[in-house]
């Protein structure tokens, strides 16, 4: 399909995306994406990787939050300097080349965005199977229904999607706070605070590797922190509000994760926690709710998990659709993807294209396959985006920067090292999937050259 000239050359005014997202709404988008169902079970992996040392596990959660905060500070500088819709796509294009930006965008449009949406849509009915029996077909039908419903919600306006995000976030955070208060203040057990715990027969290097392994597990719970920059073009006063929303959302999420796991350690005896993890019973938050609230606690956790995944799903649908829009604005995707609905002021074609790709992935892939596809390439581009900070300071030293990264360059160095550890760990654990995760961006480079050649001819 041939693309036409940019919208700016049209005789009639074209609608633009609305700037309606403030600090509270922006923070809720990120909190909604980051705090999903993982809060109830990832803590078990962190504790197990910490050699069952509660003090070391809490330290891993703090380090994970700190690394995420350092990364978000880098994104705050990039976003405040160039508050355009598209996020990482924009930064990679400016710092390296348009081809690198498009490689990220291509994998985000085909796998990263729709894959994450499909994964969370499938995970939600799976989490409720204990309360509502469902077979595989019903699970996928529910997942498709969720994708359609929340695509329509975001089609009717970014302010509508933001309102839904705010409501579901508040509804999910209140039960989490209840569990935290019950565990921390009414729990009877004293956690084992010591962090000096080496593997049997292990050296100091083994100990450091164990900490790094535990931190990697915690970082998966913080995933999604990069997505607010995608809608920077729809934020009010993004130069001020984007950094504030990033810092507030990551800080709040870190506090919730640390206190939630502390509540588990206070409410449950170590023997019970150890036995549960050894037998694959990873949802320790559910056990805390059951201890204090009985059967109602089980239902409360199930509802909270559903609310958490709904807010995560809604936030992803809102944010990821902007990748299509940004690429079309740069004439690297067909013009209809840059269309903005005249009344609702949303990228309607991009939203529905994302919906269709997500549905295809729901029908053709299982949950574990979807999550494996998006992890490795996503970490590569996140790391490149962090390194874009020094690249842009060198390339554009005179460009106004309303926000500058704290403790530069150490912020960039530490965050980059953290992502290198993640990438190395993923490649060692699953080299084939890691390589496949880079194949789609490589194809994106070929598609980019095709679009560029097309426009040279036309």
TrEMBL record:
What is the annotated localization of this protein?
A: Membrane
Record-level Gene Ontology MF annotations: L-amino acid transmembrane transporter activity
Question: PANTHER family from the xrefs?
Answer: AMINO ACID TRANSPORTER, SOBREMESA, ISOFORM B
Q: Does the keyword Transport apply?
A: no
Protein's UniProt keywords contain Transmembrane helix: yes
Ordered alphabetically, the record's keywords are: Membrane, Transmembrane, Transmembrane helix
Major location (coarse): membrane
Origin organism of this chain? Secundilactobacillus similis DSM 23365 = JCM 2765
Instruction: Give the residue spans that cross the bilayer.
Output: 20-43, 55-80, 100-126, 138-158, 170-189, 201-222, 242-264, 299-325, 346-364, 370-393, 405-428, 434-451
List the protein's name: Serine threonine exchanger SteT domain protein
Pfam annotation, one family: AA_permease_2
What InterPro entries has UniProt attached to this entry?
A: AA/rel_permease1, AminoAcid_Transporter
A cellular component annotation (GO) from this entry:
membrane
Q: How does it sit in the membrane?
A: Multi-pass membrane protein
